[in-house]
Amino acid sequence: MLQGAAVLAGSQLAAPFLISARGEVPIKIGMTDELTGAASALGHSEVQGATLAVAQINAKGGILGRPVDLLVEDDANDVGTGVQKASKLIDRDHVNVLLSDPNSGIAYAQTQVAANKRVLNIIPGAHTDPMTGKACKWNVFRICGTTSMDADSITGILANKYGKRWFMITPDYAYGHTLQAAFIRNIKKLGGEVEAILLPQTTLDFTSTLIKAQLYKPNVLINNMYSQPQVDCMKQFLQFGMEKTIALGGAIFELESVVATPPAAQTGWWNMEWWWNQPGVPHVAEFNAAIQKRYNVMPSARVWFGFVGVHSFRLAAEAAKSLDAYKMARALEGMELPPEVALQPGKVYFRKDDHQLMANIFVGRMHPSKTGNKYDVFTVEKMVPGQTVAGTAADNGCHMVYPS
Q1: What domains appear along the chain, each with residue ranges and CATH number?
Q2: What is the per-residue pLDDT across 305-314, written as a single tens digit (0 to 9) for each?
Q3: What's the whole-model pTM score?
């Protein structure tokens, strides 16, 4: 069901591929993404945003007077392949920055590669906590929120609206582990209780797990799966009639997944880490129009992640007046994104102490479209500033060490 968006987004692309600019000595941006595999729709969306950003930059003269090329590699949702592709981009293609994969396990492994080779590493959309927590590195910056930030944004709302007895279904890999831990910590602080089940991230049949959930009789079912498995879990939840007695929600229900879900399953309370429908916010309408013109889709948070990743590199290079990784990292620390990049209200900035982007988290209700626009499936009920749920860098275990 997620194939359609991926095919549309990648119809003119083959992996690896090169999005070229004019000029003889280009600056090179390397990007690895899952362009084939279970979450390929998310990978294609990040590439869409990055491609638009490169086009904008080149139209205005490039970076430091040089054109920009975007080199994209498909890691097919495999950690070993992701490490190989990151090494290839750095060692053979000599990229000036590496944008990492959406899969937290792959992105985490790639941070080791980039750190060893002293290359600036921007993580658009991999959420697991340690990358800007206990495993933070001087050269690593992250755009999406952490799993703890996402869980903290919505736990109280779900508990207050529906109750504190929860059943949780979670993918068994890095992202799921830290997300589940955050939810358990939060609900127990509120005096609640939870039963949590870890499943392979490729699970498509949730029959036995949902039977366990029914027997547990929770107030809320938390669906932490992602992409196609999340969609299938939603469908089976409704097929069993569980929505009559159990509320549904979780941290993230990606727009790519929502539009691939039957309308009846477009339900529950969730976070969006960026949302396209922000009337009156400067530059959002222009961004939406640019993505629609290029790809005939409405931009998702994933599109925004890729867009911000490329522009963050540009801003760092321009502020440092250099492509030296150390100088760019120092320049990016504490930097506030300009409105045409932030595309949301308030101050959006990279926190100096851990290099985590402090952006808003949009919390609200998922529902079938009432307007005929298939992307109009989410109503924002609360906007949570990232810094209010991020904790301190020290509490998160980040002790930044720069090379001597």
Answers
A1: 3-145+279-359 (3.40.50.2300), 148-277+362-388 (3.40.50.2300)
A2: 999 999 999 9
A3: 0.93
